[in-house]
Automatic annotation (TrEMBL):
Segments of skewed composition (Basic and acidic residues): 58-70
Protein known as: Host attachment protein
The species this protein was found in: Aerosticca soli
Pfam families: Host_attach
Region spans: Disordered: 47-70
Top-level lineage group: Bacteria
InterPro entries: Host_attachment_protein (IPR019291)
Length: 145
C-alpha cells in the first residue's frame, strides 16, 4: 500500500508492506514555486485587450491564480509518477493524505488507473512530519491493511 502525503509545496510517497509490516519512503517531491511570493510566480504580465468602443485597454485576468497554477502543475507531476508506478505494478492500494484544498486538485489530476487503486483519502497536513512521526501517525489510522 502506498500513501501519497502531499500539499501544494511538497510530497512524499511512503510504502507499507505486508506481511513484514515494514514502512519505507519511496519518493520525495518539492514544488519550490509554492514557497515564492505571488509576484515572483507571475513573472509574465497578463495579455492586454483593446476595447472596440473606447480607446482604452485593460488586462485579461486569468481564470486561475499563479499559486493555483503551480499547485495544478505539481499535482500533475505527482499524478504522472503514480500512473507510471501503477503501470509497473509497484503498488496495489493508494491512500491520499492532504489538506482539503490540495486533495481536490490531486483528485482532478489522477488517471483512471490510479483512481482504480485509490483505497482512501485523508484530510490531514502531514508534510512537515519526520519520517518516524509520519510512520507513527499513519500506523495509528484505522485503515484495514
Amino acid at each position: 500500500m502506498w500513501f501519497l502525503v502531499a500539499d501544494n509545496g511538497r510530497a512524499r510517497v511512503v510504502e507499507y508492506r505486508l506481511p513484514d509490516k515494514a514502512w519505507q519512503e519511496v519518493a520525495c517531491f518539492d514544488n519550490p514555486d509554492a514557497h515564492l511570493p505571488v509576484h515572483e510566480i507571475a513573472r509574465d504580465r497578463p495579455p492586454r485587450v483593446d476595447e472596440s468602443a473606447a480607446p482604452g485597454h485593460h488586462a485579461i485576468e486569468p481564470h486561475t491564480t499563479p499559486r493555483e497554477k503551480t499547485a495544478q502543475q505539481f499535482a500533475r507531476q505527482l499524478s504522472d509518477f503514480l500512473l507510471k508506478a501503477a503501470q509497473e505494478n509497484r503498488y496495489d492500494k493508494l491512500v491520499l493524505v492532504s489538506p482539503p484544498r490540495f486533495l481536490g486538485v490531486l483528485r482532478e489530476h489522477l488517471d483512471e488507473a490510479c483512481k482504480a487503486r485509490l483505497w482512501d483519502e485523508l484530510q490531514h497536513d502531514y508534510t512537515t512530519l519526520t519520517f518516524e512521526e509520519l510512520r507513527d501517525r499513519l500506523a495509528k489510522l484505522e485503515l484495514k491493511f
